[in-house]
Amino acid sequence: MVIGIIAVVVVLLVLFVIVTYNGLVRTRNRIDNAFSQIAVQLKRRHDLIPNLIETVKGYAAHEKGVFEAVTAARANAINATNGTPQDQAQAENALSGTLKSLFAVAEAYPDLKANQNFLSLQEELTSTEDKIAYSRQFYNDSVLGYNNKIQAFPANVLAGTFNFTPREYFEGDPTEQGPVSVQF
């Protein structure tokens, strides 16, 4: 009878460890997937920017400083893709700021605002910015759930044993006033 009770307790304990461990792995993998979705959208954004610059250049050739700033910010954002989520977020926030400058330049050129190529790029960039915002939110929600799991008892015991460590949030610029404005 005692051996039966001990066997049941051991089986329940093993099941608890398996279920908890698998849950932590699933949550960690969800975070990795969410981060890769952010990377996909950021790459799309990075790929749109040269086309946008070339379109605006034709109308505003004397705005060389703005083009150089956007190009440099894009290069920094691409280079940050191998960094931490915080490094990547800072580089992307800088890119957003320079894009605002580019769109401010475009405001001064009515012919540019009516250019079909520019309007198409503007729409694609707006859509991409929305997808980036959603991807960031999903990633941060996944990080919150994961961090809560590895810090709450009793899962924290297994998390510590198997080296599940907290993840960083992909944070936007706290001084950011909103998304890149592309309305003309």
Describe this structure in words.
- The protein is mainly alpha-helical and 184 residues long.
- It has one domain (2-161): LemA-like domain (de novo design (two linked rop proteins)).
- Helix content is 78%, strand content 0%.
- It has six helices and no strands.
- The chain has helices spanning 2-57, 64-79, 85-107, 110-114, 116-151, 155-161.
- Helix 1 runs antiparallel to helix 5.
SSE map:
Layout: H1 2-57, H2 64-79, H3 85-107, H4 110-114, H5 116-151, H6 155-161
Helix pairs in contact: 1-2, 1-3, 1-5, 2-3
Keywords:
78% helix; 184 residues
Concise description?
With about 180 residues, the protein is mostly helical.
Low-confidence stretches: 177-184
Radius of gyration: 23 Å
CATH fold node name? de novo design (two linked rop proteins)
Number of strands: 0
- Could you describe the largest sheet, including whether it forms a barrel? none
Task: Provide the CATH architecture.
Answer: Up-down Bundle
Mean pLDDT: 84
Strand content: under 5%
Shape: rod-shaped
Q: Structurally, how many domains make up the residues? A: 1
CATH homologous superfamily label: LemA-like domain
Q: Share of helix among residues?
A: over 70%
